[in-house]
Amino acid sequence: MESKYDRPLPEINSLTAPFWEYCKKHELRMQFCRRCKEWIWYPKAICPKCGKNDQMVWERLSGKGSIYSYTVIRQVIDNSESFSKDIPFVIALIELDEGPRIYSNIVGVSYESISIGDRVEVVFEDVTNEITLPKFKKL
Amino acid sequence: MQSGNAYIGSENPNGTLARKFAIVGYGETEVSRARVDKGEKKLSVKEYLGMAVSLALEDAGIEKKELENQGFGVTGSAYPHAEIYSGEVVQDLGISPKFLIRADTGGNSGATLLSQAGMAVSSGLVDVVLCVGADTPMNITYPGAVREWRYEADFQKPFGMMGPNSQFAFIMRRHMHQYGTRLEEIGKVSVSQRENASRNKNAYLKAPITIEQYMSSRPIADPVKLLDACIQVNGGLAFIVASEEYAKRFPKEKVVWVRGMAECHNYRHGSALSPDLTYTGITVCSREAFRIAGIEQKDVNLLQIYDDYALAVIMQLEDLGFCAKGEGGKFVSEHDITYKGDLPINTGGGQLSAGQPGMAGGMVHIVEGIRQLRGEAKERQVSRAEVCVVTSLGCLEYNNTFAHASTIVMGV
Lengths: 139, 412
Ligand SMILES: [Zn+2]
What we know:
Helix content of chain A: under 10%
Strand order of the largest sheet of chain A: 4-5-6-8-7
Radius of gyration of chain A: 16 Å
CATH architecture of the largest domain in chain B: 3-Layer(aba) Sandwich
CATH class of the largest domain in chain B: Alpha Beta
Number of domains of chain A: 2
Radius of gyration of chain B: 20 Å
Largest interface: A-B, 43 and 36 residues
CATH superfamily of the largest domain in chain B: Thiolase/Chalcone synthase
Structural class of chain B: alpha/beta
Bound molecules: zinc ion
Oligomer: heterodimer
CATH architecture of the largest domain in chain A: Beta Barrel
Number of helices of chain B: 13
Strand content of chain B: 15-25%
Largest sheet of chain B: 9 strands, mixed
Shape of chain B: globular
Distance between the termini of chain B: 6 Å
């Protein structure tokens, strides 16, 4: 854990708290509607398919997926200057094997070795006492 | 152009336009990057709003008092933040409307104003609606003023997402991967629009560029480079929407008709959970707008296509049905899309070169469409301008393209 983590952190509220709580336990979970058999991501108050919330549960995912698309960040903007020391770094849109897609970083490899379709797996980074970020490494 | 029955609801059971409506005046201010050190003006958003309104009134040849007890619409402004905003704007301008719109659909805001103004004049609620948009993104001096959505702040920013440039990079990468779209094809959009801008005295960037300059421009968020992206400016625009009856008092050559218009919001192509990131809502609303207007692609003389990024133009040419999905790059390489070409696009330079005045950016396309149809585009006038299609997009979503899409068919 970095002693002084200075990158932007998410704001936790009652809707998003379960996600971050599970991340702290190093579990990747998302909402799932048992009625629709449909994953829901990012956290929502009602199922976007049936419009109800009575069958929504936080289900665990395998944490494995493939890169659907990605970018290499080359310059920062003024609300995220703390990322300047990480440049160049990769943000990928990862399609998890269960279906939902999540944005995260690909860590542990140089951006030159990344391609669409690469298999990846979640790794958890405890960046503060409160926040653990789900990141991904190549399989 | 024969108007026929294309606007009549009974002829178009699913259409959104019950009656035709018109645009009878427009205004466009000078733009600036607020570089005082370079002799550029640094003006407030209130000054831009005021100038745009004055210019539109002058163009339409009407007195401000004719807008009393009528309709008024305004786009949002990134700076300063004000959740209650339209009330301040009408107070500043000294207008007392009976119908008030404030658009919050990002780049689509101008189209939202046009759509709601059109419904208001078509329903008989009011005769005329003054629509104005102005923004001063170059005056932002503190980080908190940068636009940020909740999903962006919580689920993108902690991983280093850097606003629209990086959000669009995923779409661009995917289009290139899925269809083999080449940078040279995407760059042709930037180069062609700059050629158009070189004939627009109000464009911020006028110096012609080459494809080599595009290819070697500074990387921002791969594959997005500097010359893929629009350039933010301070500026203001306005247009005056009128009912068919009210429009009759204006000289025929100053009246532009909205022949068909449709919107589509939160469109997700293929799958709600895992949509195809190469489609926009233009796929849906362009079909509807074309049907209401009674036109096909071959009837279109010129286009003003929302261009926050060069690839967005290519994607929308596909979505508009000018070519198959994935063939937009090839289509652009085979056509001259400058003002003098066989399919002129963004004839004033678009947001890529003329500039994006923040939340009023989509009004650049609407105003240039009006100007061309009225034959007032001077050195960049398209030789035959009778049917112009204008598109708007807004709000880059999480794991999708744009939340907002509009297609407007305008004619003389
Ligand atoms: Zn459901």
